[in-house]
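Aim 2 progress update. The chain analyzed this quarter is reproduced below.
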Amino acid sequence: MRRIEGSGSGWPRLKSHAKFVTIIKTDFLIIGAGIVGFAVARELRRRDPGCSVRMLEKESSAGRHASGRNSGILHAGFYYSEDSLKARFTREGNRRMRAFCAEHKLPVMACGKLVLANCEQQIAGLEELFRRAARNGIEANLITETEARELEPRARTTGKALWSPTTSSVNPRDFMQALENELAAARVQIDKGVRYVSGGNALVESSKGRYSAGHLVNAAGLYADRIAHGLGFGLRYRLVPFKGLYLYANPRIGSFRRHLYPVPNLNNPFLGVHFTLTSDNRVKIGPTAIPALWREQYGGLHGFSLKECGEALLNNTALFFKDPRGYRNLAVQEIRKSFRKAMVDEASRMASNVDDSMFSSWGPPGIRAQLLDIASRTLVGDFVVEGDADSTHVLNAVSPAFTCAFPFADYVVDRIAGMRHKVE
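Predicted structure tokens:
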């Protein structure tokens, strides 16, 4: 009934002789039209303009989840240990994202960032970030309290601060739209409102028909683990969702000049509540990292799944009692931040003349797809990619995946080429 044939571009193609069965054929099929999927599609077409690239997106438009709900921060890259993929990609990603914005005339808030210590004990944390910046080739400076207030008059710090001049912010929705326009011009087809169902033997079943793919790229975000498990990959991992909330300032709050961040606990993957300046000069504080009860728990019963709820409760209960890297205390602190006053109180440690009356508007929530190693019951801090010559699975694309998208896509496409070379 059907056989695999070689295509002109060297990627396996499927030919059907069955009557009344339409199979859409493509060299590459990417599941998920978010920032990672877009960046991979862009890189595939850049390297081989003759290859066909198609994307499946279950929503009616692209970037509806983590990518469009992202903070838009272009990180500098000093948080990450030098042996990590995040350290490899963040500095270059920051540069390339800003270059993309310049090319497409997208506004960038190039205000830089101050990392502030709220007590003397946190100065050691600042010094460690400075060392990591040096090891990662990142421009950053340890400065005095006086110098910090010259950069941001409302900044509150103890002894020292870390100054990052390259940290910026963009509007993630505008960025995604510009990238989608570029992909359309490169003849990348995005099939929207089409849900992945199953895959195997070069065939993908979707909610609206079959696809034959020379190579499948799973960039499905919150559901990447499900797709990977169905094809035999990522079996030691599960995705655990965390809800991120931001509070927006009232117009009368007065201006801020810089992003303000606390010294993070480097044992967990979250950076804490911070002040962010958006590309249109609004001020917001956040985000939270509240354990979510299901994967798309944006509000009310949106996306509710009893099965996912059970999984989330099971995973969070295990984390709570095992308490890896102080998870129990972290979870309690994050749940408190869902209350406006608690969020503002935490942010006020970093800036003077801030109270909860200045922040009254919650922004749209986002869900962080955080990978859990079920064997060790620990949250995975770095990017994770698995696969073979037939499929590639982006299992952990957590912050700063938005910043890292372009060099991360290079890495993914290099990996695809390497896997294919092994079987030739």
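The chain has ten helices and 24 strands. The two ends are 26 Å apart (CA to CA). These observations will guide the mutagenesis experiments scheduled for the next reporting period.
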